[in-house]
TrEMBL record:
Organism whose genome encodes this protein: Sulfitobacter brevis
Entry's Gene Ontology BP terms: cytochrome complex assembly; lipoprotein biosynthetic process
Signal peptide: none
Keyword line: Cytochrome c-type biogenesis, Disulfide bond, Membrane, Redox-active center, Transmembrane, Transmembrane helix
Spans traversing the lipid bilayer: 12-33, 45-67, 79-102, 109-130
Thioredoxin domain residues: 124-269
Subcellular location: Cell envelope
Keyword Disulfide bond recorded: yes
GO molecular function list: disulfide oxidoreductase activity; phosphatidylglycerol-prolipoprotein diacylglyceryl transferase activity
Cellular-component GO terms for this entry: cell envelope; plasma membrane
Keyword hit for Disulfide bond: yes
CDD domains: TlpA_like_family
The protein's name: Redoxin
Length: 274
């Protein structure tokens, strides 16, 4: 669930597993091509096509499942870096591709089928080896609202909570903030809190004023306590809590409207557990 840091870069667990699968596929395919030089060109071409097919079909699957989220900003369909992939759709797309390749040239592409299977198995194994995070609750500290100023605890108010950690110096934070405040205003049955990390109230107000954004859900965290308590490694980080305050999922990095709405939809379906 938590992001993973590799040097100065921060990746989600899903991104790491995707990199692992792609690396295994490319390495095994390259070894196969060297062992079978007469088919090397075809194997390289088919490997590239396999990766592209998974990315495209997984993205298409996610878009089709979240069309309403993309309606307001169709260009987000091409914002692959914001995430939003349907692994099952990607697997289906790759399976169809491999079956076609095997049907046409079984002797050439049979090793590729094995490479894909090994890549998928390795990614699953790595995912299973990552320890499951402990069930975490919404932090209990007191945080001042930008509007009110008096410190209060973060609260779900009996509704699901979306907690966004951000800063004005963070480019992806600045890009996603107008969309997120718009969604926050529209989602009446979900509580939003935008906890600024390490900046003054004046800096935050200046940023919000320039972009003509609402200030009601803004929370001050000048000591960046929330990042430490929640083990977040980068900004922006968006955390999704159920109505009883249990952390359900985490997203590090810029999020699209469609991905945000999809997470909120899942959050609303979480039963209240006491």
């Amino acid at each position: 669930m938590n992001p993973i840091a590799i040097g100065p870069l921060v990746f989600s667990q899903a991104q790491v597993l995707a990199f692992v699968a792609a690396a295994v596929l490319l390495i095994v395919s390259e070894l196969t091509a060297r062992l079978r030089p007469e088919h090397a060109k075809a194997i390289h071409w088919a490997t590239t096509l396999t990766v592209v097919t998974w990315v495209v079909t997984a993205r298409v699957g996610f878009v089709l499942a979240n069309l309403s989220g993309f309606a307001a900003s169709p260009r987000d369909v091409f914002a692959f870096w914001q995430g939003g992939f349907d692994p099952l759709a990607g697997i289906c797309g790759v399976t169809v591709l491999l079956l076609v390749l095997l049907w046409r040239h079984q002797s050439t592409f049979a090793p590729l089928f094995a490479a894909v299977a090994l890549a998928g198995t390795t990614a699953i194994a790595v995912g299973l080896m990552v320890p499951a995070p402990a069930l975490r609750q919404l932090p209990e500290g007191l945080y001042a609202s930008l509007d009110r100023g008096d410190p209060r605890p973060l609260a779900t108010n009996g509704r699901p909570l979306v907690l966004n950690l951000w800063a004005t110096w963070c480019p992806p934070c600045r890009r996603e903030m107008p969309m997120m405040t718009e969604v926050a205003a529209a989602e009446q049955d979900v509580t939003f809190a935008f906890a600024n990390q390490g900046e003054s109230a004046a800096t935050i107000r200046d940023f919000l004023t320039r972009l003509n954004l609402r200030t009601g859900a803004m929370v001050l965290d000048p000591q960046m306590n929330l990042m430490a308590e929640l083990n977040m490694l980068g900004l922006p980080s968006t955390l999704f809590f159920s109505s009883d305050g249990h952390l359900q999922s985490v997203r590090t990095g810029e999020i699209s409207r469609a991905a945000l709405l999809a997470q909120i939809k899942d959050l609303k379906g979480v039963p209240n557990v006491h």
